[in-house]
Amino acid sequence: MPIASTRDEAVSRSSVAVAAVAHGPAAATAITWALADEVPVALMLNSEPLAVMMASPADLKDFAVGFVLSEGLVARHRDIRQVLVMPVDGGYSVDIAVDPAVAEAARRPRRSMEGRSGCGLCGVAEIGEAIREQRPVVPLALDPAAVARGFERLSEHQPMNRINHSVHAAAWCDPDGNILLAREDVGRHNALDKLIGALVQSGVDLGDGFAVMTSRCSFELVQKAATVGIRGLATISAPTALAYSLAREAGLSLAARWQDRIVLFPTTCTQDA
Questions:
Q1: Per the residue annotation, which of 119, 122, 173, 217 is the catalytic one?
Q2: pLDDT digits 0-9 by tens, 236-260
Q3: Which residue in 16, 43, 170, 228 could disulfide with 191, CB within 3.0 to 4.6 Å?
Q4: Is 122 an active-site residue?
Q5: Is 39-119 a domain of CATH 2.60.40.3950?
């Protein structure tokens, strides 16, 4: 399984063409359908196993960087020395090199993580580990027009979804809603991790803008966003009650799309009125 030399090549390799039959009112038609690919990705920390995740085989360096940061395993991007992506039988291995002290801290408590593409609680052994203490962020005053602009333009930044129609996207918007960067994956958590990894490697200020996503707002997305300092998160569907509660605790501003309107959720109790 060779590594794609460009991102466009990686995106094209993230789908598998199969024969299918489309049935309509008039007749059945033979078609070729592109299915979203997902492969095991073994994440390593200093060449020791950290997690095995199911993910789309694109932007894996971004994924690894975003994962260790959003899970709070590595505190700062500058603590990451190098990331090596390697094809292996049946999937990929991604080795993240950090200082030994950083690696030791990341393994306390040790988590043996195996993650499905839709999984956001990989390797959590006890209920108390599921919900981390929230990192507080300064609430962002989301502009409904900017959020609407981000949603309106999101499809323009989904090349993988244009092929297979079945992957999630996470995009970064400036305060006016202009999309600066986007990433896609079969899993919504993976898409956000890839976006985070791409942003920090590009030196983007995560406090100056907001993320838009094609999924519902689960509490894991809130935890990941707040952990890295993202101040605003807009999703196609509304947050769960737990996601909303944790967002208020962290100060993270949430928004969702409802019909042709944008719904903003109070960030703190003082905004309820």
A1: 119
A2: 999 999 999 999 999 999 999 999 9
A3: 170
A4: no
A5: no
